[in-house]
Amino acid sequence: MTLLAHKDADGGVQTLRDHLHNAGDLAESYESEFSQIPRMAALLHDVGKVAQQFQTYLISGKGRRGEIPHARQGAFVVNDLPISNSAAEIVKEILELVIAKHHGELPDCINEIGDEAFLTGFTEADKQNPKYAYGEIKQGLHDLDLDLQDTFQQAEKDVFDFVGRTKLLKLSKDSRYFYSGLLVKYVYSRLIDADRTDTAYFETKEQYHPIKAD
Known about the structure:
Layout: E1 4-7, E2 13-15, H1 16-29, H2 36-44, H3 52-60, H4 72-79, H5 86-100, H6 124-127, H7 134-140, H8 148-168, H9 173-204
InterPro entries: CRISPR-assoc_Cas3_HD (IPR006483), CRISPR-assoc_Cas3_HD_sf (IPR038257), HD_domain (IPR006674)
Pfam families: HD (PF01966)
Protein name: HD domain protein
């Protein structure tokens, strides 16, 4: 069965593979610097749509929009990747944040009283919750040709580059954390822009042409 990402008002469809790769290419293309973290985010942002329950909803048109979760599963995929160094851990946390919340506001990583952290919500128990159909999604990933390992390694280089540049600025500890927060928002922005741009061009049936700044 061909997995779908979108269906327009006329009944036209966009495959999930096309949407993920298109969004990945767009997210990478906006700027050459720090391009692989947003590419990775875009490649995984909608993998929750692999689930049969989402495919049935999309094809039938029955059900409420947003009723079937499909964002958090991409963060689960990231969480399952092997981590070998501190840069990889930073990439993982950025991706978990932006993918899980690409349909809503970025969350605080910890609540006001400090007893609840967003990034602890990717446990095996979370992944086994039937509403996410994560086992089914992991099996369906092979058909999407996402090349995750190589892209993740390139994303690690983005982090090494970012950390190296901030060190040159000789920032205070608080300022380094602030810059890291800006990097998260920057990756999030590129993901949202890529996702919505590809979806919009599918719906309008127009050809995307990048705008070159002078």
